Amino acid sequence: MASGEEDGAVEEKETNNKKKTKSAVAIAWLTFYNIAMTAGWLVLAIAMARFYLQKGTHKGLYRSIARTLKFFQTFALLEIGHCAFGLVRTSVIVTGVQVCSRIFMVWFITHSIRQIQNEESVILFLVVWTVTEITRYSFYTFHLLHHLPYFIKWARYNLFIIMYPLGVAGELMTIYAALPYVRKSGMYSMRLPNKYNVSFDYYYFLIIVMLSYIPLFPQLYLHMLRQRRRVLHGEVIVEKDE
Amino acid sequence: MKHYEVEILDAKTKDKLCFLDKVEPNATIGEIKSMFHKSHPQWYPARQSIRLDPKGKSLKDEDVLQNLPVGTTATFYFRDLGAQISWVTVFLTEYAGPLVIYLMFYFRVPFIYAPKYDFTTSKHWVVHLACMCHSFHYVKRLLETLFVHRFSHGTMPLRNIFKNCTYYWGFAAWMAYYINHPLYTPPMYGEQQVKLALIIFLFCQIGNFSIHIALRNLRPPGSKTRKIPYPTKNPFTWIFLLVSCPNYTYELGSWLGFTLMTQCLPVAFFTLVGFIQMTVWAKGKHRSYLKEFRDYPPLRSPILPFIL
């Protein structure tokens, strides 16, 4: 019985050590991930600025950065895994919804419907996404390194106030512009009769997606506003004590 | 006999909501809830959560005052659970919907399909069979709600009825639309496929019913006791040897049968979503069985023998 108890104690120590090493690996990975994503979106921002400065027009801009955008935006799917495996303390569902909506815009709208790639609304949401992501990923990076410059924190909790609505506007206008082309081509749609006894109309699906922004956007926006108040409110209290 | 004094504080604000003096030591939480209800008529007992600790677990209605770790002046914390609705009401509403909605599509009521199809019937016999199976399933559920099930809780939050009805009614409409559509395509392997599907469906319906009866018999009328379910003389209950929640296993089987019978992707989707939800419930139930009973049979899995 004595040896049994000893084994139990040894086992516990090992799992504690395992837990500690897991955290160090997790932090290393997350730091690498956030630095890489910050760099990626910076590259995108610079490429976009360069194109516009050189060509003087936004036509063809999307095509020039499409591969880089798809790579880094798709890579963000990993963030769902981070939440699911407890590396990051955010809700899987919230992250899932945000990442999936981005994936949807990139792959199922701008990639698939080539006729709208030169719309101004595409540039609008690309600029918004770029600014937002650079701020967000650098915020996470500095936070992990325990050295958070105030202006990054300020940017994260204030820029969204105009970025969110502008981004939503860009996305909605892009989907709206895509509608006639979807209708004409009948893309991603399935009609009856077929052996699966199901039908899908991408045109009406897109209209439903646009309508879903109405309940979803205010919730996300209010959530960010509440977080902002909590962060700023905390700061105020500290100042008072000093 | 020493009487107790009971004070009830709001769990969040710690405000004193109610003070009861001369409470019998053998009074139950249920009785205290009724007394609290008298001074606060808007909080009927079903929506009261009474606890010893503001962040702790709710006390049960059956708990007796003198058996709780409190002094002669007991302090309880109250949380409002929000408007409540009875489980029976929710079940009846959420099951009556699919029954009615499916039949509307089956009879091709106007404004669903093109006008030339109004009130016509499908030429495929599998469509008639599917309607009978679907209707039978929901009639069975309604009757079980009224006569078989013994519920642990009387009520659930009111918002659940909207959530649940959206789920059941929405999926029923989606499935029924395609199965009863004039352009419906019967199953690929014809009669063989439909016959096999029907056998699976009926087998699982009987199985599911057998489990519900077995579970009911575990619990005497009006009681909320929990016991380990075991196989009975009914062969359909022998699955208890391998599974904690065979009612969900059989339910999955029924819907797999219905999917095979109709060869309809929305039905497959409904089956999948239901399976995910039932697995979550089964795992939870399995865990509480393990926690509550030291001698719980180790061979059992939550929902799928040996797998899940």
From TrEMBL, chain A:
Catalyzes the third of the four reactions of the long-chain fatty acids elongation cycle. This endoplasmic reticulum-bound enzymatic process, allows the addition of two carbons to the chain of long- and very long-chain fatty acids/VLCFAs per cycle. This enzyme catalyzes the dehydration of the 3-hydroxyacyl-CoA intermediate into trans-2,3-enoyl-CoA, within each cycle of fatty acid elongation. Thereby, it participates to the production of VLCFAs of different chain lengths that are involved in multiple biological processes as precursors of membrane lipids and lipid mediators. The chain crosses the membrane at residues 26-53, 87-110, 122-145, 157-182, 202-222. Belongs to the very long-chain fatty acids dehydratase HACD family. It is found in: Endoplasmic reticulum membrane; Membrane. It catalyses: (3R)-hydroxyhexadecanoyl-CoA = (2E)-hexadecenoyl-CoA + H2O; a very-long-chain (3R)-3-hydroxyacyl-CoA = a very-long-chain (2E)-enoyl-CoA + H2O. One of its GO terms (cellular component) is endoplasmic reticulum membrane. Its EC number is 4.2.1.134. InterPro entries: Tyr_Pase-like_PTPLA. Pathway: Lipid metabolism; fatty acid biosynthesis. Keywords: Endoplasmic reticulum, Fatty acid biosynthesis, Fatty acid metabolism, Lipid biosynthesis, Lipid metabolism, Lyase, Membrane, Transmembrane, Transmembrane helix. It comes from Chanos chanos. Pfam families: PTPLA (PF04387). GO terms for biological process: fatty acid elongation; sphingolipid biosynthetic process; very long-chain fatty acid biosynthetic process. This is Very-long-chain (3R)-3-hydroxyacyl-CoA dehydratase. It comes from the Eukaryota. GO terms for molecular function: very-long-chain (3R)-3-hydroxyacyl-CoA dehydratase activity. It is a multi-pass membrane protein.
TrEMBL record, chain B:
It is found in: Endoplasmic reticulum membrane. InterPro entries: 3-oxo-5_a-steroid_4-DH_C, SRD5A/TECR, TECR-like_N, Ubiquitin-like_domsf. Signal peptide: none annotated. GO terms for cellular component: endoplasmic reticulum membrane. The chain crosses the membrane at residues 85-107, 166-184, 196-215, 264-282. Residues 155-308 form the 3-oxo-5-alpha-steroid 4-dehydrogenase C-terminal domain. It is an enzyme of class 1 (oxidoreductase). GO terms for molecular function: very-long-chain enoyl-CoA reductase activity. It comes from the Eukaryota. Belongs to the steroid 5-alpha reductase family. Involved in both the production of very long-chain fatty acids for sphingolipid synthesis and the degradation of the sphingosine moiety in sphingolipids through the sphingosine 1-phosphate metabolic pathway. Catalyzes the last of the four reactions of the long-chain fatty acids elongation cycle. This endoplasmic reticulum-bound enzymatic process, allows the addition of 2 carbons to the chain of long- and very long-chain fatty acids/VLCFAs per cycle. This is Very-long-chain enoyl-CoA reductase. It comes from Chanos chanos.
